[in-house]
Amino acid sequence: MNHTEKLTRYTANFVDELFKSGLTDVVVSPGSRSTPLAMTISEHPGLNQWVVLDERSAAFFALGMAKKQQKGVAIVCTSGTAAANYFPAIIEAYYSRVPLVVLTADRPHELRDVGAPQSIGQLKLYGDYAKWFHEMALPEADDHMLAYARNKASRAVLTANGGNSGPVHLNFPYREPLIPDFSLENVWGDQNDISFYTAADGKRRLDPAQLDALSGKLQCLSKGLIVCGPQTDPAFAQAVTAFARAWRLPVLADPLSQVRAGQHDKGVIIEGYDAILRSETLRQRLKPDFIIRFGAMPVSKAYLFYARENHDIPQFVVENTAGYREPAGNRTEWIYADAALLCQDLTNRCGNGASDADWLETWQQMNQTAKDHLLASDDRDTVTEGEAVRRLLEVVPDESSIYVGNSMAVRDLDTFFMTTYKSVDVLANRGANGIDGMVSSGLGASAAGEPVTLVLGDLSFFHDMNGLLAAKHYDLNITILVVNNNGGGIFSFLPQVNHQAHFEALFGTPPDIDFQHAVNMYGGSYQRPASAPELKQALRESYQYDGLSVIEVNTDRTANMEWHRRKWQAIETSLLKA
């Protein structure tokens, strides 16, 4: 058996096993050393291949796709710094628990560390950010090595998707020649439809004794809070709101919790808690007896202060499998159980606890007051950043997704995303909270075929403009709302704003770019509305347009800061009077 046949059968068995293990999408960045993988993936009848030229963009594209599909996506690149460009997305995938199967091609062992071109140290390149790393053997095609290729592929998909999902990394050393021969008989090998490895991954659930102990602790306390941070389980919203109603507890729901949108009852949901808890006086008056949090820590910094200030009360954090996401640093009781099942079990153990109905009503009344102020129109033609997000939420389609950028965008969504019966998924890269790769992530989510609205600032848009090539290449349907305050608007809310000698150069960082030229270059539709009614109309039109649609709203950083602070001050004044 010659080299080409060994290369072909070994790689084909590996790729076929990816598909049999449930993986359907692979994002490939072109290169020479990855030729065996790229061509074999392209030939496989069951795999969707997406070609994205820039590796950093490609990895974030796959990240957004995996977030939306909630299953693993593979990425393939050549050797050298191509693999290093994956690193930011792999870090995000690790912290936000997104399954990626990272396949990097490499020089064979004899060409490493000898000055060969496009050769860097790729072994364990991503360090602790990969759940599992494996250096693949050089291609061979006897029965034992074909089984080896399959078991590594199957294990990679299983590991990426299992437990707390995350990235896995397999490194492929390939010798030349690199071109596979697909004319070989039975090139895909084993025709068994069952994957090499299978696993029955059950959901964790507390046993009756543990549930009795937990419910006993909670029923001795009257003023509890349920906090829902970022999470993606579609069964959770119904379960947690039923639990809250039965126990008469307010639910502080982060916009990424998937609890603010959908058909479930939302009477116990407090969307305005960030505005309420900005007041130190109100935080002191609203002291709870316990807090039980599901999902990651919410976006709201005001809630983080609240959690820290109540370090003396029982605080519970629920993780579906394992983890220690508790940045407040408080003494915590961890509950490792499926969140939706735990809520169902606690609902059934409601009993006659000490829940205080006035406590829930107080939160509901304060929430309504906060919403009245937040939704009040200023009767001005100019569009603030908060106003832009608010208008978007009025017209965003049912059965769609919002992918929101970091810095001010996600915070404005937190403030203005009120409960809705629309089915709207809210996605974000809140693992590492970076601004990089946001355009590519949103486009990756849109590859699933459902309408996606990407909301981000001008710096985030600038940072990943080359990601727009995927929209042109695949005619992806996405609306991008760029809130352009000509720089880093979030710094206007931070102490750095008081150091004007350095502020603009180091923190404001105005790019002074006309984004219309970039949108035209990638074949997209572009609009720049100047008022709130024009913005709503532009958004409506964008949802009727097939392809890339960019809507840019120009705002002023200083005016935006003052507008937000007036809102927060009015809310605090009204609530303290009440």
Automatic annotation (TrEMBL):
Give every Thiamine pyrophosphate enzyme N-terminal TPP-binding domain span. Answer: 13-121
Q: What does the record give as its pathway? A: Quinol/quinone metabolism; menaquinone biosynthesis; Quinol/quinone metabolism; 1,4-dihydroxy-2-naphthoate biosynthesis; 1,4-dihydroxy-2-naphthoate from chorismate: step 2/7
Which reaction(s) does the protein catalyse, per the Swiss-Prot or TrEMBL entry?
isochorismate + 2-oxoglutarate + H(+) = 5-enolpyruvoyl-6-hydroxy-2-succinyl-cyclohex-3-ene-1-carboxylate + CO2
User: What Gene Ontology molecular-function terms does this entry list?
Assistant: 2-succinyl-5-enolpyruvyl-6-hydroxy-3-cyclohexene-1-carboxylic-acid synthase activity
Annotated Thiamine pyrophosphate enzyme TPP-binding domain residues: 439-553
Keywords (alphabetical) are: Magnesium, Manganese, Menaquinone biosynthesis, Metal-binding, Thiamine pyrophosphate, Transferase
Q: Which Gene3D superfamilies match?
A: 3.40.50.970, TPP-binding domain
Cofactor(s) recorded for this entry are: Mg(2+); Mn(2+); thiamine diphosphate
Q: How does it assemble?
A: Homodimer.
Q: What does this protein do?
A: Catalyzes the thiamine diphosphate-dependent decarboxylation of 2-oxoglutarate and the subsequent addition of the resulting succinic semialdehyde-thiamine pyrophosphate anion to isochorismate to yield 2-succinyl-5-enolpyruvyl-6-hydroxy-3-cyclohexene-1-carboxylate (SEPHCHC).
For this entry, the protein name equals 2-succinyl-5-enolpyruvyl-6-hydroxy-3-cyclohexene-1-carboxylate synthase
